[in-house]
Amino acid sequence: MKSAWALFCRDLVLTWREGGAIGTALGFYLVVVAITPLGLGPDLNLLSRIAPGVLWVALLLASLLSADRIFHNDYEDGTLDVLAMGPLPLPLVAALKSLAHWVMTGVPLALLAPLLGLLLNLPIEAFPLLMLTMLAGTPAVSFVAAIGASLTLGLRRGGVLLALLVLPLYVPVLIFGVAAVSAASVGPASPWPPFLILCALSLASIGLAPIAAAAALRAALR
Amino acid sequence: MLSLANPTRFLGIADRVIPWLAALTFLLLGAGLYLAFFVAPPDYQQGETVKIMFVHVPAAWLGMFGYTLIAIASLGTLIWRHPLADVAAKTAAPIGATFTFVALVTGSLWGKPMWGTYWVWDARLTSMLMLFLLYLGLIALWQAIEEPGRAGRAAAILALVGFINVPIIHFSVNWWNTLHQPASIFRAGGPTIDSSLLTPLFIMALGFTLLFVLLHLIAMRAEILRRRVHVLRQVHVERAAMA
After folding, report:
1. Averaged over B165-173, what is the pLDDT?
2. What is d(CA B69, CA A166) in angstroms, rounded to the nearest whole number?
3. B20 vs B16: CA distance, rounded Å
4. Is B137 within 8 Å of chain A by CB?
5. A27, A186, A198, B207: which has the highest count of C-beta atoms within 10 A?
6. Number of domains present in the structure of chain A
7. Is residue B129 within 8 angstroms of chain A, CB to CB?
8. d(C-alpha B161, C-alpha B165), whole Å
9. What's the rounded Cα separation, in Å, for the pair B174 and B192?
10. Is A63 within 8 Å of A104 (Cβ atoms)?
11. DSSP secondary structure string, A40-54?
């Protein structure tokens, strides 16, 4: 338990001190959302209708930017070999690293989302649910991204391949995330059924994705 | 299955089976196409365009069959380390992707006269498109990893993750579509198919399945031989380096 906590804190500190990772993701998120109205025209009614979808798609892309870093540095310097032989089970290691990725990427992106919602004329009443939905959905994003990161570990152009592998798997998260936010902003349906399904998707990813990621890490490390 | 674990024995069986299978496949496909295009009556509503169905439906079915086959082979790779399982998974991916692509293209061509547009974001179409993207991901992963052992295991993990996700994707796309637009194109229940159309469809489905198996056997044979050539070359280079 203590070593698990130590590993988690180590990952957080490393990401923080390395700098740039959070800033890049947030900046990318801002740029994608800012550039969308330029392509679609400044019609505020249209923007407020498509705001949930734009915010969610941009969030997926932004969190994929840093996804290939989940295992990369530890793989390069051999830490991952030590971890694989250490006392912690490898699925737990993968889970802790995914969790650290969520804290350092998913949470800041979810907190930034309302600000970008203003740019897209999303009604203010929908903001609490927007943040809540993104906080509930981003664990699934980080944990599934860890599968992609472990599969593409050490490959050339791994980052692009990662996006190709993982984005189709995000379809359910995207659909239910957008459904919950849309229901909150334009109605008339209740936002809670899609929100609860989103929570279920996140919980299932937390439970299952580390097993797949650990298996892929074993294949990469042998 | 165990007796097939020996690649040499597999090659022997494949060599004997392939000519017969090829003959049977072409016989069935020929009969099916003849029945579909010359015997089956045009639909009273859709006219002659209904004949696209005879290619579209079997292709869609085999697109899904291919992914299931890959998932089963992936279990073989991960659990039993069956030496032919990753050969089977690797060679099935492009074939399955092609059938899925054929289903998408024929569906699109069928959609133009029926719905007035080449593409609608209908739940089924979208699910098939996602299946196609999953196939592309698998093929890309196979090509990105050079070491065959790791590539096989990585692709097997990805295939199983995708296989768990396919029903979830289908379910969520269904939800999404009913949320955005009411079902206006596909009526609930749908018209039942008359036996004059069903018989050729059945023959075509059987013919397509045999075609899949035939192509898969040929591709597996080629892959095994390719790996042997690769090993022989390596040995050759090593010997040359020693001398």
Report:
1. 84
2. 21
3. 8
4. yes
5. A198
6. 1
7. no
8. 6
9. 22
10. no
11. H-S-HHHHHHHHHHH
pTM across the whole model: 0.88
Cα separation, B36 vs A61, in Å, equals 46
* Chain B residues touching residue A157 (CB < 8 angstroms): 144
B121–chain A Cβ distance below 8 A for any pair: no
pLDDT in tens, B49-84: 778 888 888 998 899 999 999 999 999 988 888 878
Residue numbers of the domain that contains A13: 2-221
- Shortest Cα distance from A95 to chain B (angstroms)? 16
CB < 8 Å from B in window 134-153 of A = 147, 151-152
3-state secondary structure chain B: CHHHHCHHHHHHHHHHHHHHHHHHHHHHHHHHHHHHHHHCCCECCCEHHHHHHHHHHHHHHHHHHHHHHHHHHHHHHHHHCCCCHHHHHHHHHHHHHHHHHHHHHHHHHHHHHHHCCCCCCCHHHHHHHHHHHHHHHHHHHHHHCCCHHHHHHHHHHHHHHHHHHHHHHHHHHHHHHHHHCCCCCCCCCCCCCCHHHHHHHHHHHHHHHHHHHHHHHHHHHHHHHHHHHHHHHHHHHHHHHHC
Question: How many angstroms separate the CA atoms of A57 and A174, rounded?
Answer: 7
> What ipTM was predicted for this assembly?
0.87
* Residue B18 in contact with partner chain A when CB distance is under 8 A: no
Average pLDDT over residues A103-117: 91
Give CA–CA dist B148/B59, Å, rounded.
29
3-state helix, strand, coil in chain A (%, to 5): 85, 0, 15
Tell which residue, B95, B102, B94, B172, has the closest CA to residue A169: B172
User: Chain B closest CA to A158's CA: distance in Å?
Assistant: 8
Calculate ∠ Cα B62-B67-B73, nearest 5°.
120
Query: Cα(B114)–Cα(B46) distance, rounded to whole angstroms?
Result: 7
| A157 in Cβ contact with B144 (< 8 Å) | yes
Mutate to test the interface with A, among B77, B142, B161, B181 (most CBs of A within 10 A): B161
Å between A164 CA and nearest CA of chain B? 6
